[in-house]
Write a structure and sequence with these properties.
about 160 residues, 1 helix, 11 strands, mainly beta, elongated, 5-stranded antiparallel beta sheet, about 10% helix
Length: about 160
């Protein structure tokens, strides 16, 4: 019963936010370098609750590479505070580096990471009712013993996720 009520509240809140244009900002374009493409870094999505009834979120990064490539993706997870998209005052949530080899054949892969939705403070020091989560990703590619330089970070759109 509690989960159904929570799901209804979350859905109503998301519907209300999206109806006034606050659900997410647009993500940047796909980036292709050195035989690999990293698709637009998406904002995370709510992904159920844990045993303590805390909201879980799932981060996704989709990639595609030519045969013979290995991709290394560095992800930084953030909570947006200033609303400008420039990162001033935003809260660092975590980071991770992923690797995937496409030695045998070209293909696609989805990196996923699941964690609890953080509880951050608003400007007045109180708890936020929702979190505006986004990720920044960069990547490099190795092939035949040669490793490329890292691309610039690409920032994805922010997702509003309610506690």
């Amino acid at each position: 019963m509690k989960r159904n009520r929570l799901a209804c509240l979350a859905a109503a809140s998301l519907l209300a936010a999206s109806s006034i244009g606050l659900a997410a900002t647009p993500a940047v374009a796909d980036t292709t370098r050195y035989g690999c493409t990293v698709y637009k870094p998406a904002g995370p999505r709510a992904d159920g609750v844990d045993g303590s009834n805390r909201v879980m979120i799932k981060w996704v990064i989709d990639v595609k590479c030519d045969k013979g490539r290995t991709i290394h993706v560095h992800q930084i997870r953030m909570e947006e505070d200033d609303g400008t998209g420039e990162g001033r005052g935003d809260d660092y949530v975590g980071e991770k580096t992923y690797s995937r080899s496409f030695r045998g054949k070209a293909g696609t892969h989805r990196f996923t990471y699941r964690e609890q939705l953080p509880q951050t403070k608003d400007a007045g020091g109180g708890k936020e009712p929702n979190e505006e989560m986004y990720q920044k990703v960069r990547f490099r590619v190795s092939s035949n013993g040669v490793v490329s330089s890292w691309t610039n970070y690409e920032r994805g759109g922010a997702s509003w996720i309610f506690h």
